[in-house]
Each structure stands twice: as structure tokens, then as C-alpha cells.
UniProtKB/TrEMBL annotation:
It comes from the Bacteria. InterPro entries: NAD(P)-bd_dom_sf, PRISE-like_Rossmann-fold. Residues 65-355 form the PRISE-like Rossmann-fold domain. It holds the Pfam family PRISE. This is NAD-dependent epimerase/dehydratase.
């Protein structure tokens, strides 16, 4: 079967790794992004605005994908705006591609917000989700832009007759500078500042996160699951959680990360200490570090996303994911979490993102 992939958000943390996996498996691969980010070598880059149907039509004139993988989102100031904008992006793309009648499968990447909802929703309500998070748990009553994206996917699939898969990773660990949700690079940058200024590496999160069990998702693991689901008939029209396959406590992993950078650390002590506050005013420090070590990016805010790391690590519950849906269908990939972090750190050093 002809396999022509269109990766939407191909310069991001999940799209970048997915494009590599597709190329490794011999797919013809197009990458669609709004900006001028760096695509993987071998990807045919397409630039378009997902909120502009005319822009999409022009950019995709010569592209007839058999498989579409949607891996991007846009952050707005409210969940209402998130729903409007992110739903429209999925709808616009699938409407434009509908005319080509080439699409056989669409994979959509969302996340654990599907189960947790916006942070304020479960903190304010006092009703905490049951963990491990399972794929058959019902939708929450709170507004959620992931639901809007899924609904647009289901509508288009019914109209055009393609199959679909939805992928819900936990925190993604992988290499993509400037990504909105990049804990691995954010922690590497923070640890580098601590080392340069002889400061302790302070855990920014909650007691529940420090002591509880957790998991994360390597971006390469997510990529493998997405491709697998697009080619496995028994996996069609199903939603999948995806994580590395191991579990850990931050009380252990924080120490391991500190050891990798050869710095002292401080764990949870009585209260949450947000990384946003810890890094406030460190812009000039990062510029000095970048100049001293010849790094490629002097803007602290382009190499870190402290707000997202704070959201993840300040949760008042431990968060683990159950992967029953893909495990019973023989998706048996595994990735060590320390391996995910440490290989990322090595790559960031090699790319001159961190010293």
C-alpha cells in the first residue's frame, strides 16, 4: 500500500520524532508547520496556517496524503478560546483534505488533560481523578479542547470513511527547542543555571508528586505507537494511552537528574516552589551562560517552558497511565525513563543548547 504521511506540527516535540520514525520505516513524509522551524532531513516541508483554509489549500495543492498525523495545538488565554481555535485547526485541515479523497487514516495526539481536565477544574472542585488513568474513563464535565479536537476527527471520519486513532501521552520527553510543553529541556536548562551559579536544584512541585508514583512518555515511544496504530487493523478507531512502561517517584528521579549534572538538590519541603518564580529574573544569567559556552540560543524563554513543568509537577495527586488498549493488541515497546532524560541531555549538549 502506498504510504504518504502528512505530519501536522512536524517541528514540535512529537511531530519531529514521528517524522524520524516514518522516514526510518520508508514512508514518503510531508511536514506541515506554521513557522519556519527546522524539519527533519528527508521531510518535505509545507508551510501553512491551520486557521486559514485558503492557506491550507494553496500549501497542499500537490500533496495527497494517505495518512495524516495531527500533533500540534495552539495555547490561548482561556479554555473557551482553546476549544474554538484548536477545534477549528483540525476541522479546517480535514475539510481541505476531504476534497482529495486520499486519506485512509488520521492519528491525533492529545494528552492526559483528557482525564485530568484544566488544572483549576479538579483543584477547585476537590474531585480528583482515579489513577491509574484508564482509556475507558468517561469524559469530564469541564470544557476541554481535547474533546473538541476528537469530535472534529470523528465527524470527518464518518463523512470521509477513514479510520482514526487517538494517542494520549503523559509528559513528553524529547528534543524540540521552543516547544510549548517541554519538561526535559526545561529541567536541563534549570540544572545548567544551578550548576553555573552554584545553586541547589530545587524541586518545584507538590508533596503528592514528590512521593507518589509517576510515569512519562518518550517522544520516540509515542512515534512508534502512532505508526503501529495506523497500520494495525485491530487498532483502528481506538484511543490509546502511551507511556514508557516503567514507573518512578520524583524523589528518586530528581536525585538522578542532579547527579547527572553534578549539582546539589533540595526536594519537597513544606510547600510548592514554582519554577516560574525560581527562573524569574534569570534571563540575563542565561545570556551570560550562552555567551560563555557558545550556546545557540540566548533567550531563556525559547529554551524553557517553566509554566508547563509547574503544571505537571504541582498536581495534588500521583499520576500514572494504564496502557491496556495497546498492550492487549501486542504493542510491547518499552523505554527507560532515565534513558529518556539522559539521552536528551546528551543531545542538548551536542546541539549546544546547554553547556
Amino acid at each position: 500500500m502506498e504510504k504518504i504521511a502528512l505530519v501536522v506540527g512536524s517541528t514540535g516535540i512529537s511531530g519531529n520524532n514521528l517524522a524520524k520514525e516514518l522516514l526510518n520505516q520508508g514512508w514518503e513524509t510531508y511536514g506541515l508547520s506554521r513557522g519556519l522551524g527546522k524539519d527533519v532531513e528527508g521531510v518535505s516541508s509545507v508551510q501553512a496556517d491551520l486557521l486559514d483554509s485558503n492557506s491550507l489549500k494553496q500549501a497542499l495543492v500537490g500533496v495527497r496524503p494517505t495518512h495524516v498525523f495531527f500533533t500540534t495545538w495552539m495555547r490561548k488565554n482561556s479554555e473557551k478560546e482553546n476549544i474554538e481555535v484548536n477545534g477549528a485547526m483540525v476541522r479546517n485541515l480535514l475539510d481541505v483534505l476531504s476534497e482529495k479523497k486520499s486519506v485512509k487514516h488520521v492519528g491525533l495526539v492529545t494528552g492526559l488533560k483528557h482525564y485530568l481536565g484544566p488544572f483549576d477544574a479538579y483543584v477547585a472542585s476537590g474531585v480528583l481523578p482515579e489513577t491509574p488513568l484508564r482509556e475507558d474513563q468517561p469524559r469530564l464535565s469541564a470544557p476541554n479542547f481535547y474533546y473538541a479536537q476528537e469530535d472534529e476527527l470523528y465527524i470527518a471520519a464518518k463523512r470521509d470513511g477513514f479510520t482514526w486513532s487517538v494517542h494520549r501521552p503523559h509528559t513528553l520527553i524529547g528534543n524540540a527547542v521552543g516547544n510549548l510543553m517541554n519538561m526535559g529541556t526545561t529541567l536541563a536548562v534549570y540544572a545548567s543555571i544551578c550548576k553555573e551559579e552554584n545553586l541547589p536544584f530545587i524541586f518545584p512541585g507538590s508533596k503528592a508528586q514528590w512521593n507518589g508514583l509517576s510515569d512519562v512518555t518518550d517522544a520516540g515511544m509515542l512515534a512508534k505507537q502512532i505508526v503501529w496504530a495506523s497500520e494495525t487493523p485491530s487498532a483502528f478507531n481506538t484511543a490509546f494511552n502511551v507511556a514508557n512502561g516503567d514507573v518512578f517517584r520524583w524523589s528518586w528521579l530528581w536525585r538522578k537528574i542532579a547527579e547527572w549534572f553534578s549539582i546539589e538538590f533540595i526536594g519537597f519541603e513544606d510547600e510548592i516552589r514554582p519554577l516560574v518564580e525560581t527562573l524569574k529574573g534569570k534571563e540575563d544569567s542565561w545570556k551570560r551562560i550562552a555567551k560563555k559556552h557558545g550556546l545557540v540560543e540566548e533567550d531563556l524563554h525559547k529554551v524553557s517552558s517553566a509554566w508547563h513543568t509547574d503544571l505537571d509537577l504541582s498536581r495534588p495527586i500521583e499520576v500514572m497511565t494504564d496502557m491496556t488498549n495497546s498492550r492487549i493488541l501486542d504493542f510491547n515497546e518499552y523505554c527507560s525513563t532515565t534513558g529518556s532524560f539522559f539521552s536528551l541531555f546528551e543531545q542538548l549538549k551536542s546541539d549546544k543548547i546547554i553547556p
